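Sanity check. The docking grid for alpha-D-galactopyranose depends on where the pocket ends up, so I'm generating a full predicted complex first rather than guessing from homology. Inputs follow.
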Amino acid sequence: MIDHLKQEFDKIFHESGELRYFFAPGRVNLIGEHIDYNGGYVFPTALDVGTYLAVRKRSDRKLRFYSENFPQMGIVEGDLDDLAYSQADDWVSYAKGVLYMFMEEGMTGDKGFDVYVFGNIPNGAGLSSSASIELAFAVMWDAVNGFSMDRVTMVKLCQRAENEYIGVNCGIMDQFAIGFGKKEHAVLLDCDTLDYEYARLKLDGYKILIANTNKRRGLADSKYNERRQECETALSELQEKEVVSHLCELDEAAFNEASHLIKGADRLKRARHAVTENERTKKAFRALEDGDLPAFGQLMNDSHVSLRDDYEVTGKELDAMVEAAWQEETVIGARMTGAGFGGCTVNIVKEDGLDETVKRISQRYTDQTGIEPKFYVVTTGDGAKELT
Ligand code: GLA
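Predicted complex below; grid placement will be based on this.
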């Protein structure tokens, strides 16, 4: 990969000088959906696909960005002294947003750079290509300036870039999973305290299969913010009588006792999802530690049902894909993953006969929706880092 990046960098920027290389992965969440912003547990894993950067420091304060994935945009120019948001920047906004947040922390950097970017996360699949770009640039900017920022601060800074610069009110999960990924492990993250623990992904004989519905995540951002709002309102209703700082602080029994305080059937369902999903995630972590894959898979299936019926973020395509997978004996568990409203499902599937399984799921899905899906068997990988 480094040879490829070097060669392409030279072709685009026609200049020599010392290059440094960086990588940040994509992520897939195994379970714990839509609860990072409710102070719950999530259980994502970093992938071995991601965003690669080849960078050369400049002698002035100019910034030049080029992505192999968006050649039609050509070289996008910028300046360290003008990091204001511009819609025309497109993907470059994720990079500029990160530099902007460093600047807000008083870490400006003295010189600009030329950067060549290549990403191999399947496009628009909901595997966090945006958080991957953010972390790749954060690790790079930190390294070339010698800021030595600690990882938790960096992860939070990238989340702020997404919240305040891009304007998507996401939780901490994606940036954390990408900043703290570890090959062959998933990370159990307490989104309230940011305490975390790795679990070895012992999937002997099984693979993680991502199924892309190829349904564009059209309303995703606005619906996402709407769900967050519903949870916040439900929480403030509970707080009228209960001392509770976030929904996932309650276990199911405590929730059932207090739930009459929540006014509105929809809000009650949203809150119930948050509470039950948090319980499922903790159980799933234990099931994996115990090597009990069937129990793990059942919790994944239950998670989907809750996201479908209580949280209502699935939709026809995600439901069709998951139902197609549930019909297969060799599928241990299947659920939507990420924000929902399109995007991907995550499945744990027996390696034996995998191709045949995929063919049947694919056929069923297309019969139901008329859409051609895409499938990726993914491998886990490490978190964001410099490549040497
Ligand atoms: C998106 C957000 C995350 C998380 C998930 C849903 O990926 O970026 O913070 O809320 O949706 O679990």
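Relevant for the grid: The chain has a mean pLDDT of 96.
Also worth noting: Residues 255 and 279 are 12 Å apart (CA to CA).
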